[in-house]
Amino acid sequence: MITLTINGEQQKAEKRLSLRSLLINLGLGEKPVVVELNRHALSPSEFEEKILNEGDELEIITIAAGG
Description:
Layout lengths: L1 E5 L2 E5 L5 H7 L7 E5 L2 E3 L14 E6 L5
Parallel strand pairs: 1-5
Antiparallel strand pairs: 1-2, 3-4, 3-5
């Protein structure tokens, strides 16, 4: 297990977990999101290949349409 900080809260996750898998585990797999990993914005095309590491800090923002 590794410890991640997600939106300011520490959470445990499996080792060798991809960002895409984390988003699915959080119920955000099909939702449009903006993700910042260690203060760097990521493109959605990077989510599958990006493997999370001990101590990573993520900010995850869901995008909602308004009207």
